[in-house]
Amino acid sequence: MTSPATADLRWLARAVELSRNCPRSGTAFSVGAVIVDAQGRPISEGWSRELDPHNHAEEAALAKLPAGDPRLRGATVYSSLEPCGQRASRPLTCAQLIIAAGVPRVVVAWREPDLFVTACQGTALLAAAGVEVVELPELAAAAREVNAHLLER
Known about the structure:
- This protein is of the alpha/beta class.
- The chain has a single domain (4-151), classed as Cytidine Deaminase, domain 2 (3-Layer(aba) Sandwich).
- Helices cover 32% and strands 15% of the residues.
- It contains six helices and five strands, in the order H-E-E-H-E-H-E-H-E-H-H.
- It has helices at residues 4-19, 57-63, 94-101, 122-128, 140-146, 148-151; strands spanning 32-36, 42-47, 76-79, 105-108, 132-135.
- It has a five-stranded mixed sheet, with helices on both faces.
- Strand 4, helix 4 (122-128) and strand 5 (132-135) form a beta-alpha-beta unit.
- The model has no long low-confidence stretch (mean pLDDT 91).
């Protein structure tokens, strides 16, 4: 049986891998997301700009599931970057979408740097809503590498 820590690393590494599929942008991060059910099975995946030029990874992954999907109540969202807490292109942030879906746990590799948004509040919003937030900084370098073109300005 796989330990929870090993499973977290595995699924978060998959999210980082998915972020490599993102169409490159000079104005947005490349992010991947995986949603895993309570039994440890992947139920959805997505990446930034996958379905639409304004989609974020978590938004794309959630959009592939039916509204009110009961599996989300025991799921974990794995995201290569902290879910957004502020957003100009949509009425709801990724943190709000995750909270509204009833997802109890989020695992991230990298906190959003002050590039497009100062002091991203995604993880703070999730935690305030009772969502468990876990950060695995051992995968942060891989998530940053996908976004090196933004960070080398």
